[in-house]
Amino acid sequence: MALKIKKVNDISSAIGPVKGPLPGQAKAKEEAAISMQGLTKRFGDMTAVDHIDLEINKGELFGLLGANGAGKSTIIKMLTTMLTPTKGEARVWGHNVSRERNAVRSSIGVVFQDPAIDGMLTGRENLDFHGRMYGMDGPLRQRRIDEVLELVDLAEKADIKMEDYSGGMQRRLEIARGLMHYPHVLFLDEPTLGLDAQTRRYIWQYIRNMNKENGVTIVLTTHYMEEADALCDRVAIIDNGKIVALDSPENLKDMIGSDSVSLEIQSGAETLIQSLQRFSWIKSASIINGTVELKVDHAQQRIPEIMQVANECSAVITSVGLHKPTLEDVFLKYTGRKIRETGATANSLVAMMHRRKK
Ligand SMILES: Nc1ncnc2c1ncn2[C@@H]1O[C@H](COP(=O)(O)OP(=O)(O)OP(=O)(O)O)[C@@H](O)[C@H]1O
Ligand SMILES: [Mg+2]
């Protein structure tokens, strides 16, 4: 008889026990860990995911970055076989997400955006249940439970009921559960949503370790720019269901161009601008609302020179601001708005808190 648990968005309850060889033993047929061709999802008239073409390499730590409603979770749900694509194709670890669902499910671990834990069970019981659903035998299951608990630093809390875990501990346990059956690819949908800055940094460390030390290919979604920047080898910026930019965070930031230097100045602004024009590393100089705004290559190294020139032309500077391009600037360039303005954080947080209370 099939086991039942109450949270339907837990992949193990949604898909039932997985048959066949243990996930970690499955062999990939293709080079890319994940490939999508024209992947599209419509809900009625609304196109949530719009012809996505993308390959994610084995061993990559890949980020889908986008605002509230961009289509990130819908992409994850199609790749994890929870939603059927309307059009197009996707393969995960060589298996077609529409036609080889069991093989896909065997190759992946998933942490969904909505929490999917049974608070009445302890951390260890949750993991044990998951291991059973994946057909792991007793000794292997017990060994793996200890390993994954160790990985997310929860060994000492293993026998506490999960309703008594903090939000960060629950998220870590969910990540551990996603790893239980030795997946090739781990999907993390908003892994740190609503967690405090310190807990988020711990979770980043676990994610890095899983990727770099355990070789797990990781696909995460986030609307935290700094998360994508700190963690990901490559990032796809998703807007209205489309990829609008795709590259490493470094390259994306480089595309924005020079650093910005803002000089609050008491007197001598015009003379200073004229004196600075002769340097090739000054890309532009202007006065905006009384502040001297410069575009400068490698600004950090140039600030002493700028101060020296200001000194020579008797300009009186009262403060200096330096702004290096961030992924926020990249997002602004490609979408025409700031991610914070979209209300992503607030909306998603309110929704999540509401769900967590249930
Ligand atoms: N089951 C569904 N039925 C109808 N519309 C849906 C469904 N699931 C998602 N959508 C819509 O598809 C769009 C993309 O939603 P999705 O959840 O993929 O966005 P997201 O990028 O994950 O956003 P968030 O940052 O809030 O998690 C949204 O407009 C959403 O309302
Ligand atoms: Mg989402």
Description:
The relative contact order is 0.13. 37% of the residues lie in helices and 26% in strands. With 358 residues, it is of the alpha/beta class. Helix 4 packs across helix 5, helix 5 (138-151) crosses helix 6 (167-179) and helix 9 crosses helix 12. The protein has two domains: 11-253, Rossmann fold, CATH 3.40.50; 258-324, Alpha-Beta Plaits. The model is unreliable at 1-30, 343-347 and 349-358 (pLDDT under 50). It starts with 10 loop residues before the first helix and ends with a helix. It is elongated and about 80 Å long. It contains 13 helices and 14 strands. It binds adenosine-5'-triphosphate (ATP) and magnesium ion. Adenosine-5'-triphosphate binds next to helix 2 and helix 13. Magnesium ion (MG) is lined by residues 72-73, 113, 189-190.
What's the layout of helices and strands?
Elements: H1 11-15, E1 34-43, E2 46-56, E3 61-66, H2 72-79, E4 87-92, E5 95-96, H3 101-107, E6 108-111, H4 123-133, H5 138-151, H6 167-179, E7 185-189, H7 197-212, E8 217-222, H8 225-231, E9 234-239, E10 242-247, H9 249-256, E11 259-267, H10 269-276, E12 282-288, E13 291-296, H11 299-312, E14 316-323, H12 327-335, H13 344-357
Parallel strand pairs: 3-8, 3-9, 6-7, 7-8
Antiparallel strand pairs: 1-2, 1-4, 4-5, 9-10, 11-13, 11-14, 12-13
Helix pairs in contact: 4-5, 5-6, 9-12
Bound molecules: adenosine-5'-triphosphate and magnesium ion (MG).
